[in-house]
Amino acid sequence: MKGIAVKMPRRLTQQGIVFAIFVVLFGVFAVFLRGFLSTSNMLNLLQNVAVLGILGLAMAIVVIGRGIDLSLIAVLAVPSGLLLQLVQDGNTFWYALLMSALLTLAFGLINGWLIAYAEVPSLYATLASGLFLAGLGQAALFKLDVVQWSPGLEGFQFLGQGNVLGVPMPIIVFAATCFVVAFFLRRTRLGTFIYALGDNPFAARTSGIPTRTLVVVQYVIAAAIGLLAGLVLVASVNSGPTRIYNSTLIYDVILVVVLGGIGLAGGRGGVLSVVIGTLLIGTMLNAMTIMDVSYSAQNLVKGVVLLVAVIADSFLNPRNEETAQQGDI
Amino acid sequence: MMTSKIAKWLGGVACAAMLCATAPAFAQKGLDEPFQGPFKTALAGKTVAYIPVAMNFDLTEGWFAVLKHQLEPWGMKVVVRDANWNTNAGAQAFTTLISEKPAAIVVHNPDVQTYAKLIQRAEKEGIYIIQINMGSAFRSTAFVGANWIEIGERDTQAVVDACKGKSNKIAVVQGALSAAASAYTLKGVENVLAKNPDVKVVSSQPADWDAAKAKAITQTVLKQNPDLCGIVGFWDGMDIGTAAAVKEAGLTGKVFLATSGGGEQKGACDLVKSGAFDLDMSYDVPTQGTDMAALIKWLLSSNTKPGAVKGSVYTTLIPVTKDNAGKDGTCWKLEQVKGS
Fold this sequence. Notes:
heterodimer, A: about 325 residues, mainly alpha, two-stranded antiparallel sheet, two-stranded antiparallel ribbon, 4 strands, about 70% helix, disordered N terminus, B: about 350 residues, Rossmann fold, six-stranded mixed β-sheet
């Protein structure tokens, strides 16, 4: 029982590795790629990944508490689509917004109840509930997959297309959400409880944390942030692309979270992890679009960079019986 | 004068004589038209199956509605098997349908390969296959749809013309890489560009038919090339995002945006009117639906062996511009087509 704590030099974490890759890539592009380092392109880069980043924050809250929310894309697409549909059908904007908020709240509660009280593993619960919500939208709520913009929404597109002092709104929303979530996770009791829950749910329960309620709160918050991302998305493209549910966006969201160093085992990482993961993805996407790299080559490059990050992590932080946890994916 | 009078008189006599001869027949009973009876029996009770890549968007909803309205009054059944963007699900539905033996299958191919073998098999089993808008590598009895190469050519030509005397820099926002419609349109773009070597393509990227992706790509391209003079987009449903990027950059009216689509009111005419698109090549969905219904009627009543004849009905395109976007009849309304 001795010699466990061999003194190690300060470890490079996953977050550190990804940050290093980001700095190197950014530096190379800044020097060699004309037009990359301009202020307008930087804003553009951030704007293009803002929705992904906001979703990453929602996912982070759930993953830190040792869960996962695969239904996030459905929450992104359906309530915001409902808002557009209701306005198109002649309702007022505020009524429509209230209805979509209620739908989101109900959905978050159902997710949380399934996981906390019915004790369905979050992976299956959210996979099924996401399918349900997307199906509900397609079958009962929308007339078309892409819900069209209609008069009565004037002013709402400011959320996606406007700017304040030259900074596009999606970036402002992303930044504001970052601050709120960071404050919540680091400065409030609930936030601390979520880390405790993710680190060791049984210990958390034993020490008197109301873990079931906490799980429900987590999924409601995640759904609310998902709705916010959806509102930014529809305002930004002037339509409700509910078909996005069929895309691979959920993998990108998980990628942003895991890449930044929020382990799927829970209890680790924070808002900074999401920001770094988002920045890396954004930089790659932006630079490759400027270089007009073909689609297949883009996927290749993305895959290689991600593999490098993962491999570097497993070399520098090898897993062993002590660091591996039950339930580690 | 005299001759014409005589002619008139003679004509009158002839008419009277004919009337005398036929009048009793008219008065007693009608004349049976011998072809309509067999036509009715050929159609009654038959099923037409429809496999779109997905329901819930203007094109596929429009075709379905028109087929139903055209064929159901003849006692036919129109059923839909929604592939919902899933190629495997579509292939499975197709396979099951072959064993159910409908009279005809209307198929909307997700790519040129997946359904090719199934189409061949179905025609061997005696089912007419009508392909709509997106063709397979295997040509069946009939193809109804847009000529994508023509769309690519006409859109690009319009952009090239609008670029005259400007920067000559254009961008192309493609659809999905695997879709034939996207690849064919790109060929049309290349055809025109080959004739205009002075035009430079600064970006040609696929946006996966996704408005958000199209917007992100266009934003980046516009930041790098603020003097861009035109964009060729491949589908109006996706190019809402392209147009949003142009608008946000404050370049509406300066960047000529040409695209294509099914010509639905909200998806095409309204957006051209608002200035989002400068040109939207419409392949008018109700016309395509009527063409398909006419073909099905003709095939069933002619008793042609499936696959024995093969032909195409390429849709006559309607260019929607500021000039005609406000006129009634340029576009169609989904609610009306569904409700009519």
